[in-house]
Specification:
Translation Initiation Factor IF3, 4-stranded mixed sheet, alpha+beta, transferase, TusA-like_sf, transferase activity, TusA-like, 2 helices
């Protein structure tokens, strides 16, 4: 299992979800992806992306800069 960080701060919808999707294709099942965003829509888009694509949203939190999501790639 590996963990990768994807810094998407400053990008606006739909780019955070699209770049998250692309990054997940490069991971093996069970790998973790940390996604950092500033776009308010990411609070809706990232969990929806996980639900629709079989990935697990392990955690999400608001930070000083925006949001931090921890995803696990599903099969």
């Amino acid at each position: 299992m590996s963990e990768t960080t994807l810094d998407l701060k400053g990008l606006k919808c739909p780019l955070p979800a699209l770049k998250t999707r692309k990054a997940m294709t490069r991971l093996a099942e069970g790998d973790h992806l940390v996604v950092l965003t500033t776009d308010p829509m990411a609070e809706i888009d990232i969990p929806h992306f996980c639900q629709e694509n079989g990935h697990a949203l392990l955690s999400r939190e608001r930070t000083d800069f925006g949001h931090r999501f921890l995803l696990s790639k599903g099969g």
